[in-house]
Amino acid sequence: MAATILQGKEVAQSIRAELANEVAELKKQGIVPGLTVVIVGDDPASHSYVRGKAKGCEEVGISSEIIMKDADITEEELLVIIQQLNENPNVNGILVQLPLPAHISEHAVIEAIAPEKDVDGFHPISVGNMVLGNDTLLPCTPHGIIELIKRTGTPMAGKHAVVIGRSNIVGKPVSLLLQQENATVTMCHSRTQNLEEYTQKADILVVATGRAHMIGKEHVKPGAVVIDVGVNRIETGKLVGDVKFDEVKEVASFLTPVPGGVGPMTITMLLKNTVAAAKKQAKQ
Ligand SMILES: Nc1nc2c(c(=O)[nH]1)N[C@@H](CN(C=O)c1ccc(C(=O)N[C@@H](CCC(=O)O)C(=O)O)cc1)CN2
Fold first, then answer.
1. Which of 54, 128, 202, 259 shows the greatest Cβ crowding within 10 Å of its Cβ?
2. For 161-186, how does the pLDDT look when each residue is reduced to its tens digit (9 = 90+)?
3. What's the CATH code, domain 140-263?
């Protein structure tokens, strides 16, 4: 039987509707959640994601600001901007769009963000709290993936989850969140030998390799839940995932499309984090 397609776009929309109600209630108490996004350089994809973030904020009632800087800004100048945002009480969430130009240390910039305003969940303190299972702002794409899997109704406890890719943004954090849902997790990456041996045993397969159409039906256990995190533009200009969609949909039980699967969840979880950060800061 063909897989059910997990429409992240629709799930994201329903979460946004809930957030809009929550923000309306907060505004009655005088709390207006605020997000500032800093973008450096002129990468068209990054600018498009940032526009999507601002549009999402508008949709749910979050106040947002985009700070655009030329690619020749120095690391020191960028750190001064972050410091000013840390000190601004109207800014509840700060996000620096990645990647940054090579002369700026992503590590130094992320570390400069006040952890309570780290709506990306990338600060070492946020990551440490996530590892410990403490209440913290979770990274958006991994959190969105867990929400999507929950919507399949597939219990994660006791299931074998295989994650392909070990990036700090997706692979590593999603493996931790899957463990916290009591899944048994195997990590695979570019140096894994005999990849199929692992993936064929996965009840839940999360693919974040950044390589277009790398995973075919031969990799997938019949009935598996397959989450495709890839966003690759191929020669034809078309956007495709890391998974061969037409092939894998014939064997999987659930499959996310690209576009319209994990991507829209990323921005929605950012909005959720911004509202959570505003609520927490209002209590302090
Ligand atoms: N500071 C951050 N930088 C980056 C992150 C991040 O979470 N924080 N993630 C990615 C980019 N990203 C958000 O920033 C992002 C990527 C993809 C999508 C998305 O909705 N994709 C669509 C397709 C978009 C298109 O048509 O080009 C989809 O998959 O349906 C949203 C956000 C790296 N940088």
1. 202
2. 999 999 999 999 999 999 999 999 99
3. 3.40.50.720
